[in-house]
Amino acid sequence: MTASFSGLNVTATELEEVDSGPSRENEVDPILPERDPADLSIFTFDRGRRTGDFFHGVLEQMDFQDLGDLPSLIEGKLRTYGFSQTLHRPAIHQILQQIMEVELDPGIRLQQISRRERLSEVEFTYPLAPLTPASLARAIKKCTGLAGDIRQRMGSLHFDPVEGFMNGFIDLLFRFKDRYYLIDWKSNWLGDQPTDYGTEGMKRAMLEHNYYLQYHLYTLAADLFLEKRLPGYDYRTHFGGVFYIFLRGIDPKDPSRGIFRDRPTEVTVRNLRTLIS
């Protein structure tokens, strides 16, 4: 049996569709009042899974260091995902350019990353020990650096017991100065104001969709991946951290907005390894 993050992300009050491929997990936004048709900002661009697939398609093929072909790439992906009639092209182009320019961490910008220093849509599969909500909760309880509400959310799942493999896709794994980082692109709509994508807004979204659990599972996948492929690999030395990029909120002038950052502790990753067989 193969499990995925969305297959585990089942609480007592919700049932998420099990993901069977690299589609966008948990990017379904609420139905809201009609928008002002004159507002063509990134906040009024379409919402939902198809939008997530569009942005992932563009970002997978973008040359981060040369944006000369970006307009044609955007145009092709708009047609592919059914957005050929959109009037949001300027806003889309602007936000993609800003993602390249924003400082992810001090001194790190994606425009510095060449194609040979990155892998997109990295599929992973690792063997699981028999996994139940109780065994996952025990592992989470031993993890360090997690606030109480985050730990409670991660440990309150009600999925069916799993025995087999964990499967998923890391949106982007890149290397910068011999350290490795993973990125998950999020097209979620958190509000129609830039301030909605600040620390509190992102934390609400991370809790609501249980993205904290997602990036811990993905960090474990990256750790296992690098251990097999990098001679002398050491988590403390070589793993730089995780970025969840809520792209609608990106602003190079305010890198605290639209970017959730974390680096799980070595103790946490060691405890997560008890989940594998």
Describe this structure in words.
The chain is α/β, with parallel strands linked by helices. The protein has a domain at 2-32 and 116-275: Lambda Exonuclease, Chain A. The chain has helices at 5-8, 49-61, 70-80, 89-101, 133-142, 148-154, 199-208, 211-229, 235-238, 266-272, and strands at 2-3, 118-127, 165-176, 179-186, 239-246, 259-262. Strands 1, 2, 3, 4, 5 and 6 form a 6-stranded mixed β-sheet that branches. The protein is globular and about 50 Å long. The model is unreliable at 12-21 (pLDDT under 50).
Q: Kindly identify the CATH topology of the domain at 2-32 and 116-275.
A: Lambda Exonuclease, Chain A
In sequence order, what are the helices and strands, one letter per element?
EHHHHEHHEEHHHEEH
Helical amount: 25-40%
Please report the distance between the alpha carbons of the first and last residues.
14 Å
SSE-based structural type: alpha/beta
- Could you tell me the mean pLDDT? 90
- Contiguous low-pLDDT stretches (5 residues minimum) are 12-21
Largest sheet: 6 strands, mixed
Can you tell me the CATH architecture of the domain at 2-32 and 116-275?
Answer: Alpha-Beta Complex
Oligomer: single chain
Shape: globular
Name of the top-level CATH class of the domain at 2-32 and 116-275: Alpha Beta
The count of strands amounts to 6
Radius of gyration: 19 Å
Q: Count the helices. How many?
A: 10
- Percentage beta strand: 15-25%
